[in-house]
Amino acid sequence: DIQMTQSPSSLSASVGDRVTITCRASQSISSYLNWYQQKPGKAPKLLIYAASSLQSGVPSRFSGSGSGTDFTLTISSLQPEDFATYYCQQSYSPYSFGQGTKLEIK
Amino acid sequence: EVQLVESGGGLVKPGGSLRLSCAASGFTFSNAWMSWVRQAPGKGLEWVGRIKSKTDGGTTDYAAPVKGRFTISRDDSKNTLYLQMNSLKTEDTAVYYCTTDAGGNPFDYWGQGTLVTVSS
């Protein structure tokens, strides 16, 4: 099974900050990496698929990069509605999620 | 509009069984690969299993913690996905979501979730 490891597990930041979350796969997954945002009590929402493609309707301040085993999600300028938990997911074989990164207001 | 509506959750004793349903609408269900994802209280997301479309073989895959206990099936005539859960353990307590790639991208649509509580 492919293990996904995110860092950090939690992060405090301010509105307007640039934030980066990293995700590492236990083996190469090419670009089969997706990012989700989840707010309390809600279902997850797809942000980024195939490592760097922005899902329709997602603001352009979100971006993803990486391939192989190392990936990043970047939020260029945090907005109040971005405080949430973020998960990476590999869809190479078949699926598994990282443990999540909780983004909190500083 | 794509809609996924889960039902069937509730309280069950350890060792018991439960069947969840996910009613789908707004897309061609028979063409979609469907998955179940769960989230234990205060914990992260855990993929449970997947069923491919019949045209892609209709095969299933499961996560290790549920393999041999859970079974995913689909009724394309009813646009409904099922999760049969047997030999339930307390650690199966979670909100269970159904999800699909109906929009062409991984897990781009999700249901609202249904809570399963396994407790004596």
Written description of the protein model:
The complex is a heterodimer of chains A (106) and B (120). By secondary structure, chain A is mainly beta. In chain A, 0% of the residues lie in helices and 50% in strands. Chain A has no helices and eleven strands. In chain A, strands 2, 4, 5, 6, 9, 10 and 11 form a seven-stranded mixed sheet that branches. In chain A, strands 1-3-8-7 form a four-stranded antiparallel sheet, with no helix packed on it. Chain B is globular. The N and C termini of chain B lie far apart (40 Å). Chain B has no helices and eleven strands. Chain B is mainly beta. At the A-B interface, strand 4, strand 5, strand 9 and strand 10 of A face strand 5 of B.
Which features does this protein show?
heterodimer, A: 106 residues, mainly beta, seven-stranded mixed beta sheet, 0% helix, B: 120 residues, four-stranded antiparallel beta sheet, 11 strands
Distance from N terminus to C terminus of chain B (CA atoms, Å) equals 40 Å
Work out the oligomeric state of the chains in this entry. heterodimer
Helix content of chain A: under 10%
* Mean residue pLDDT of chain B: 97
What share of residues of chain B is helical? under 10%
Poorly predicted tracts of residues of chain B = none
If helices are DSSP runs of H or I spanning 4 or more residues, what is the number of helices of chain A? 0
| Number of DSSP-assigned strands of chain B | 11
Quick one: how many beta strands of chain A? 11
SSE order of chain B: EEEEEEEEEEE
- State the end-to-end CA separation of chain A: 36 Å
Query: Biggest sheet of chain B, in brief?
Result: 7 strands, mixed
Secondary structure blueprint with pairings:
The complex is a heterodimer of chains A (106) and B (120).
Chain A: E1 4-7, E2 10-13, E3 19-25, E4 33-38, E5 45-49, E6 53-54, E7 62-67, E8 70-75, E9 85-90, E10 96-97, E11 101-105
Parallel strand pairs in A: 2-11
Antiparallel strand pairs in A: 1-3, 3-8, 4-5, 4-9, 5-6, 7-8, 9-10, 9-11
Chain B: E1 3-7, E2 10-12, E3 18-25, E4 34-39, E5 45-51, E6 60-62, E7 70-75, E8 80-85, E9 94-100, E10 109-110, E11 114-118
Parallel strand pairs in B: 2-11
Antiparallel strand pairs in B: 1-3, 3-8, 4-5, 4-9, 5-6, 7-8, 9-10, 9-11
